[in-house]
Each structure stands twice: as structure tokens, then as C-alpha cells.
Amino acid sequence: MKKILLFTLVLFTTLGSQAQESSLLWKISGKGLKQPSWLYGTYHLLCKDEINISPAAKQAFANASTLYLEMNMADPKFAANMQQMLAPKPENDLRKAMSASDFQVFSTYIRDSFHMDATQLIHFKPLVLISLLMVHHMSCPPTGVEQEFIEMAKAANKPVAGLESLETQLKIFDIIPDSIQMADIIKDIKDPEAARIRDEQTKKYYASGDVDKIFDYALGESSFADYATILLYNRNKNWIPVIADAASKGSTFFAFGAGHLGGEEGVIKLLRKQGYTVEPVK
Fold it and tell me: Keywords in UniProt for this one (predicted)?
């Protein structure tokens, strides 16, 4: 379950980056830009006290005129649109994505944890269950780095935009078969301690900026690695013209899952191939 979130909503890596370049904050300059812009790798689901935005990142944000997230989560219609897109559909039946024994494990867990019948959830997409279970295991009200930046943008009256639409991002989950997503959920239900340890270790890597090791966690199972092109690389390529256009209009702060930063097909190298200077900021 957490590995799916790592690879999609919680993509926190720098694939293939050299250790000396490890950083969550990156400066974009050159290629005729009158002002620098910034890239920042985020973690999508944390406790408030786990969020630690560096002074350098706060200063970069203050210098920027616009905030770009993966999606425009500051849009007043965002929550309602997401609720509509993730509403249960009779044609969805997650029982078909599980064995009878796994469905029994799932049913028992839902009954014991949420005091409800599992049949009330089987018509949702796995993404809804992933989010539900992730939040349930948290010891605090859930938030994320993006939400922190949204609050900062509101306070500074900065406009917020998105690199892609909500619909585009949600469609990504449809590409991963329900059976694979449910198998990962069942795995974590059966071994919650392993899931907890993995989650805590991932947070430690993120807090230290050790994004290479986080990538190893995210790619821990080949079934998810098979979807890297769709989940990461294609989206990275689609974002480059959006980033280039926004940066050409003024200093912009781009905050998105850190898994999109590194690697041969990551945002950093794609921007460098376009002629921009992209350098880490400590």
C-alpha cells in the first residue's frame, strides 16, 4: 500500500542522482531567464510537526511570484471535483481483484478498524482505500508539504497553479491493475509492522534529503517499477514545457513529489538538456 503511494502520491526520490547533488531544493537559471525559479521535492502525507521546510526554501518561495504544484489544490473546486471523480461506481467491484481468502482478510480488517462492512467500500477505486488506510495509521491529523506551501501562498497573496489537471493525475491510477494495488494493500494489512517500519524509514530518508535511498524503497517491487514510465517519466516530459513557460514569465516556485526530480528522465536532467542551469541549494 505504501509503495503504491510512494510511487504515485508520495513519490519521494532522486533516481540516479549523485550523492553530492542530493537536495530537495534546486535553482533554475540560464537560457535567458531574467530571474531564477525553483524546484522543490515534496512528501505528500505527513504530520504537521514532521514538516521542516528549510530557510533556503522559504527564502526561495518568498522570492517567487507564483506557486506551481502537481495539481492546483488551492482551487476552491478541487475537493468537490476529486470527490466526484472518486465516487463509488456500481461497475467497480474490488472483490474481483482479490482472492476469496484475501477478501476475508480485508473484510476482517475493515470491520475491526472502521466498524463497517467491507461491502460498503468495494465499489470505490483502490486509491480511495489506500488513502483511507494511510490516514488511519497516522497518529495525527494528516497534512503534507504542499498544504504548507498553499498556506504560505495564501498569506503572501501568491497565485497557485498546477502542472497537470486532477483528472490527468487520477487517470494514472487506472493504469495500474486493481489486482496489483489490492495485493499491496493486503500485504500491509497482513504485516502492519513491516509497513510501519518502511514508512518511518522513508520519512527519515526524506528528512535527511537522502532521496536516492527513498527511490530504492519506491522501486522495491518490480510490479511497480513496470509502471515507472507512466507514473514518472511521461509526466516529467509533459511538465517541462509548463515549467519553461512559467519560468520565462517570472520567478516561480515548483513544488511536486521528489520522485520526479532525479534520474536520466527526471525534471532536473530534462531541464538541463533544454539548456537551463539547474543546481542544488542546501
Answer: Signal
